[in-house]
Request: fold
Amino acid sequence: MAHSGEHTEAVRLAAVVHGTVQGVGFRYLTARKARGLQLAGSAVNRADGTVDVVVEGPETAVRQLLEWLESDRAPGRVSAVDATFGPATGRLHGFEAG
Reply:
């Protein structure tokens, strides 16, 4: 019987990243990290100085990206990440740094 792999189901992460995250290459390095994890989605600057990150993919990889976003390895200076998980829509393809 096949074991249903935990953390292999596709999930969606919607995150708002707070801190000094604009003008520091944050979106582009986030895109590179996400592509390396084979995640689909986008990283987009918001008018209030935060960055919206939306990704879909295997839960393990999505959680790795979230861990990276919250770490001191992320560019700039992240003060907080408001993260919400949900089911993947399957509508995202590639990764856009908009």
About this structure: The longest helix spans residues 26-36. Residues 1-5 have pLDDT under 50 and may be disordered. The helical segments are 26-36, 59-69.
